[in-house]
Structures are given as structure tokens and as C-alpha cells.
Amino acid sequence: MQSQLQVQKVQYGLAGYGSLCVVMVGSFFLVRKMCYEVFVVTHLFIFGFIGAIALHTPYAMRYFIAGLVCYLLNLVAVWFIKSHIGRARFHVLSGGCTKVSIRLASPLKQHSIGQHINLCIPSIGSAFQWHPFTITSINCPKNNNMVEVHVCARGNFTRNLYNTTSLEQDVPVFLNGPFGDSQIQPGVILDSYNTVVIALGGAGATFGIRLLRELYSHLSKITKQTTCTRDIYVVWSVRRVSELAWFQQELEHYNYIFNHSNTPFPKLHLKLHVTGQDDSTDTPSSTTEKEVPEGIDITPDKLNTLIDNDTNRSAIKEADIVYQSRLNPSDYLLACTGNAGVFVCGPSGFNSSFKNAVACLSIDKSSHIQLFCQDFSY
User: Does the pTM of the predicted model rise above 0.85?
Assistant: First the structure.
């Protein structure tokens, strides 16, 4: 054994094996979750692995070089085709969420519901940290160089962003994208399903608010009721009351507009679940009459017209909030009539509960339920 360890080829092989073990240990879930920087640093040992293997088995370098060239070509293509430079402003929300509004130097490609961008903010992390975030803003031909994302404080980078940013900051950022499937289209949804269920868990609300914005934008262009959809159920489950402030104001405005008697919109059923203890003495504040929340595609004239037509109604319709109660998927799936489209975005356990419920009800019910799931992780 000792004589074999004296052989240089064996030494290089052991060095390569050791470097690969360091990379593997740095890839463990707990390392990625608790200390992302260690995950990045340990992956630098891959260069030591390549160098050691080049000396241990010289002919293997042709395969390493071929793979490296393909990887670099992919990076160059993404940078020139899907990368953008812009400036970002921040709006810190209660419950650990930061709204990031980005003005790009060049227009962003058409993006769809559920798609995401990779965002780099050098002043917060480093020039090498890229993080994926769901796009919450809708496509706007008149202002297609603006992008909005909501960042929930979960890891080191997102917590640092939430704790250190202020409204006055205007910092340079880099982003590339959009990435993800583009099959979810508002027009197809409204023409295909009698009932639409939008179920959201925690930060999955970023997917749901984009979907609801797109549905409203599409419906606002229709002069009379010509869509197949008659009911839209929106249910959002959060752990803390303060997290409702991310989108409650906007949801309650939509709740009013969709259920107004003079609008040709489907009926909106809005329900919010708070599973944990109350972390605030005050519930999320509601908006005053005729106030238009930022980010909603509603003109003041259009909203004033809705209010003036029914003076007994305010500009919002408050949501039904259930405290210390978990969401039961069957409660909403049983309300579906005809063809139903169920759009779910939340943690893996949340999504699994809907998958199981849909599987059970699809056997018992005559109506057809089509499930769309969006997963995310931290």
C-alpha cells in the first residue's frame, strides 16, 4: 500500500477523488439551506478535480474540454440573448417580503404566467449570486421595460435584502430570463373551464397574483360575457397574519370589481387562511374608498365608474379570513362544476394535498378536473 501511494499517478487520483468528495459534501441540503456561501466555495474544488484527473488520466481531458466548451457557449448565449441590465427600487412589506421594481435598459421578452427571472444584485450579495424569482408584473406593451418581483425573506440573501434595503435606494441589477413554461394563458383558461380554482401557499401567492392580474386584464377587454368561466375561487394560506399584507389590498379590490353587478366578470370567491398564531396586534390594513393599489391595471376613471354606479358599495370587498385553520382542498374542489381548472402553487406538502384530493375527487365526481402545479423551494 505504501509503495502504491508513492506513485504519482495514484497521488493525482486520490487528489481528484478528495476534491470530488468536498464538492459532494458541500452539495448536501443542509449546507445549501443554512450556508449557501459554503456551497459555492466548495464547488470551486471542481477545478482541482479537473487538474488532478488531467495528470492522472491525460486522455480524459478531451471530454472535460468538450463539456467545458459547451457550458461556456451556453453562458455566452444566455448572456447575449436573455440578459438585461437595469436599476431596481425596493419597497419593504411587512411579513418579510420585499417588492423589487426593476427598470431595464432594454425591453424584456414577452413573459407568461409562472415564468421567472434570475436576478443578481451586486450591492446586496455579489456579482456571482443569481437567484430565481417569479415575475408578478403583467406584460404591458407601453411599458415593457419594467419588471416586478416579490422576494420573501427565507435564505441569507433574501434576509439581507429585506433588512438592508430602503425605499430611497436605486441600485444597478442584472437579470436574465424569462425562463419556464408558457402554457398557462388567460384566454385559454377563461374559454376552457367553467370553474377556476387558484390555491396558494405562502410565497406561492406570487404565482397567483400574476394569474389573477392576467385574468383581469383579459376580461377588462371584453365588452360582454362571452367566456366559459362562471366562478373563480382564490384561496391563500399563510402562517402569519402579517404576510397577508403582501397582496390582501389588491385581492380585495379584485374581489369588489369581479363581484360588482355591472361588470361582465365571473364571480370571485376569496378566502384567506392563517394557520399560525397572530404575530401582530393589528390586522392588515384595508384600503380606503377609491384608492387604487400600486401594480393593479385599473385606471381611476374605470374604478370611479364602478363606484358611482353603486354608491352603497365601497371600492373593496373584504376577504373572508379564517384564523388558525388549515386549508382543506376538498372544500374548494367539491364546489367545482363542469370542467374545472385547478392552479396550485406552494410548498411540496401543500401541492401534494391538492394532488391527492384531485385524484380522489376525479373518481367520485362526474366533472373533469385538470390540475396545474407550480413548485418552489428555498
Answer: no
